[in-house]
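Internal tracking record. Fields below are filled automatically when a chain is submitted to the structure queue. Please do not edit lines marked as system-generated. If the sequence contains nonstandard residues, flag them in the REMARKS field before resubmitting.
Queue: standard
Priority: normal
Entity type: single polypeptide chain
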Amino acid sequence: MLGIVKAAYQDLILARDKVAQAQHRSIPIFVHSYDHAIPSGVGVCTVGPWLKPGLDDRGWDKETGRGIVKQLLSRFADLLTELQGQHADFIHVPTQGTLTAGQWANELHPTPDGFAAISAKFVAALRARFPHRI
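SYSTEM-GENERATED OUTPUT FOLLOWS
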């Protein structure tokens, strides 16, 4: 599955590079690696949950399921770091380890405080890339 995700990012980078070359400018792509979601079984607005049902279907207990999600998302972060090293103006904003257990509103989305914590990471990355503009 990560191969499919990698190919999709490479397609995005290629499309960006074509536009950037035609316009004689750089176009940065900022991405993030989410945080280690907690498979709580909580959805939002009658949608979800997304993680816990699949883990339950396979008979994995709470801790095993949480470990699986963490491992998958850690591999995703590694993929983004790899792409950052291979492509100019591809900026991986590392967000894993940002949220506390209390900053999850549901299985995939932070609380307002959690969004503020993630946003702060993006603001720092934007300031680093555009020091005279932000």
